[in-house]
Amino acid sequence: MAEVPMLEVQNITKRFKGLTAVKNVSFSIKQGGITGMIGPNGAGKSTTFNMICGYYPPTEGKIFYKGEDITEKKAFEYTNMKIARTFQIMKPLKNLSVLDNVIASSYFGHAGAKNAKEARERAMDVLQFTGLFEKRHVLSKDMGTPDQKRLEMARALATKPEMLFLDENMAGLNPAETEEAIHLIRKINESGVTILLIEHIMQAVVSLCEEVIVLHHGEKIAEGTPEQVMNDPYVMEVYLGMKKEDAHA
Ligand SMILES: Nc1ncnc2c1ncn2[C@@H]1O[C@H](COP(=O)(O)OP(=O)(O)OP(=O)(O)O)[C@@H](O)[C@H]1O
Ligand SMILES: [Mg+2]
Q1: What predicted TM-score, i.e. pTM, was given to this entire model?
Q2: Nearest ligand 1 atom to alpha carbon 44
Q3: Residue span of the structural domain in which 179 resides
């Protein structure tokens, strides 16, 4: 019998008044891996994440998680399904310390902490894991972009997800910080979390992802290994803005 995919997206479309942001997109993700989603600005990547994560439902189409139809589930139900996400625009509780941010997340979801001691212990573990332990008493609003991105991941991990969605978690990072983020994402995956990530930084996509999905003007235009999609003439033309001959020049 064929294995049920972790996530299956069937022909999803999202229309905002006159604009079709996502058109008839389908893909599936098997358990355990890291899949990348790439495409130019405005391609519909975040909109696709928002539909999958219950921020709003698709106008058309269906979404299944481990075989269960979750198309109409709301965002607050997701941590109970062991799904977590980060946002492109970071959303920390600004006036709380890093530690308190992660403690707050520890109370949510299927493994929600039962008391303050458990929440604090969970948060301390997650802060060690994500490399934020030394900064645990800093107010989240006083941290720079790399640490805020790390905090987004720490908050997601505090809900003990099986699947994690990362929306441009490396945007604004320098090369050294990007390497550190790649290392952390790999470590999260190796701890058993299936990951779907949106990323513009190709170095990260190539180094992390076994599978890549390419969106353009709301449509899926390619999918395959990083090597396959990077060598796809249409992807090169619309995404990288060059013809295949130019790429070898
Ligand atoms: N809530 C909304 N209402 C109206 N239009 C929207 C809404 N959200 C997104 N759009 C539009 O849908 C299209 C896809 O946007 P989306 O944010 O999904 O792109 P993206 O691939 O994530 O781009 P980026 O790489 O810039 O983050 C864009 O034209 C955007 O302006
Ligand atoms: Mg986006």
Answers
A1: 0.91
A2: 18
A3: 1-82+161-249
Our mutation pick for probing the ligand 1 site, out of 47, 51, 201, 213, counting the most ligand atoms within 8 A of Cβ, is: 47
Residue nearest to ligand 1 atom 8, measured at CA: 47
CATH value at residue 168 = 3.40.50.300
| Residues 36/226, Cβ–Cβ less than 8 Å | yes
* Domain shared by 18 and 97, yes or no: no
- Ligand 1-lining residues (CB < 6 angstroms): 16, 19, 21, 39, 41-47, 88
Does position 91 have pLDDT exceeding 80, yes or no?
A: no
Strand partners, 38: 214
Both 152 and 114 in one domain: the answer is yes
248 plus 178 within the same structural domain: yes
Residues 182 and 95 in one domain: no
The lowest-confidence range among 53-67, 135-149, 234-248 is: 234-248
